[in-house]
Design brief:
Strand content: 15-25%
Oligomer: single chain
Largest sheet: 13 strands, mixed
Shape: globular
Number of strands: 13
Length: about 425
């Protein structure tokens, strides 16, 4: 932000004005621009505040179900980090002193408490009953504050923005040293990538036009074409010429497909495009578009790093979006060694916190740091308060590796 401000004011100083009238008009224009600049940054800071408090609330809820000191410590560090981000955003907002002190005081208290608990967890100590009660109270207050901020934001933005914690960090993962579908892929030039895009769209190459090239973790060529009265854009990886993304317009209209039919349409499309043995793990249904997350299943084990997100127009049944970066970067056949599982599902259940009722279970590989993908028992559970929680118990150590809050409503399912 400081760099952008410096560039902005530097550009003002470089303007040479030769007449007072010109200067006056330019000054008015720049003042209007400055007002817009300040307003945009105020909105951005408020959005970051709401996002951080909402994410802090989710992490506090997760902390109530942690039984492993390692998981408890990681969650508390996350709460502390969210609190720091929320405080930074709060500092950038021109709130009345009373509101600033009320919100900032709570955020600071939660951050300090979470940091203290993270230090205790580092020694291997579990939460005490009082600490769990404190966390529950903090969670309840954070939920109320999050809703209050959302209401304020709705007024501030006239209902045009919404807040949802980013789940892309949950299962997106890549380590360039592991074997994957790109490891031995050849570097494709633009013509080769263009041919791959045309094949994916079922068009002649002459109907597909280059639109962009983006470097980064996964360098890609982008191509556009006219289809069905609108534009469709496809991303092709530079290495291996694999389809990484596709996006076209979905026009909200009458829903003619059932949820089952929409999911089946998505599954069929993935299979036709070479994404085999995919299982749906969650979905949302919003404004006539089904968005579903599929992960690769190998020998009954869910491989969460191999994730594909697909969008289906529920009026026409047409696939209108595809996001396969995580799959392209990570997909490979794993050496599972299921016969060497040390902790079976029955024993793993014993490490669930009390008050959880298991609804379903599966085996899953979940992304961790480096090349490590621990094999876990995945338990979808119902808590005593009705909330659904997904807990991952390491099949080798019996310790909690991760836990998620499962949100289910009329729009679908999400893991946070």
């Amino acid at each position: 932000m400081k760099k952008r401000v410096a560039i902005f004011f530097g550009s003002l100083l470089c303007v040479a004005l030769s007449a007072l009238g010109v200067y006056s008009m330019s000054l008015n224009s720049r003042n209007a621009y400055l007002e817009r600049y300040i307003e945009e940054n105020k909105h951005r800071a408020f959005f970051e505040l709401v996002s951080s408090v909402a994410a802090m609330d989710i992490s506090l809820k997760k902390s109530l179900y942690a039984t492993s000191p390692a998981v408890a410590g990681a969650i508390c560090i996350d709460v502390f980090g969210r609190a720091v981000a929320a405080q930074t955003a709060l500092d950038a907002l021109p709130l009345p002193d009373g509101e600033y002190e009320r919100i900032g005081g709570f955020i600071g208290e939660v951050g300090d408490y979470a940091y203290t608990l993270s230090r205790a967890a580092a020694t291997g100590r579990d939460y005490t009953l009082k600490e769990r009660a404190d966390l529950r109270k903090f969670s309840e207050t954070a939920s109320a504050l999050s809703q209050e901020l959302l209401n304020m934001q709705a007024k501030m933005f006239d209902g045009e923005l919404s807040v949802k914690p980013d789940e892309s960090e949950l299962f997106d993962h890549y380590d360039s040293s592991v074997e994957n579908m790109l490891k031995n892929g050849r570097i494709a030039d633009e013509n080769t990538a263009r041919a791959a895009a045309a094949k994916f769209l079922g068009m002649k190459r002459g109907m597909v036009y280059p639109s962009d090239y983006v470097e980064g973790k996964l360098p890609c060529y982008y191509f556009s074409a006219e289809r069905g009265g609108g534009e469709v854009t496809v991303g092709i990886s530079k290495r291996g010429a694999k389809v990484v993304s596709m996006l076209s317009e979905c026009v909200a209209g009458e829903m003619r497909l059932s949820l089952r039919e929409g999911v089946e349409q998505a599954r069929r499309f993935l299979d036709e495009q070479g994404f085999h043995n995919m299982k749906k793990v969650r979905h949302t249904l919003w404004d006539g578009v089904l968005t579903a997350d599929f992960v690769y299943e190998q020998d009954g084990v869910l491989c969460y790093a191999d994730l594909v997100r697909i969008g289906v127009d529920m009026g026409t049944g047409r696939v209108c979006s595809l996001a396969a970066e995580s799959y392209v970067l990570n997909h490979r056949e794993r050496e599972l060694k299921l016969e060497e599982i040390v902790v079976d599902a029955t024993s793993a259940r014993e490490n669930l916190t009390s008050g959880l009722t298991v609804l379903s279970e599966a085996l899953a590989l979940i992304p961790a740091t480096g090349q490590h993908e621990p094999l876990c028992h995945e338990f979808v559970c119902k808590a005593s308060d009705g909330r659904k929680v997904v807990v991952y118990i390491n099949a080798a150590t019996g310790e909690q590796e991760q836990l998620m809050i499962l949100i289910e409503d009329a729009a679908g399912t999400q893991m946070l």
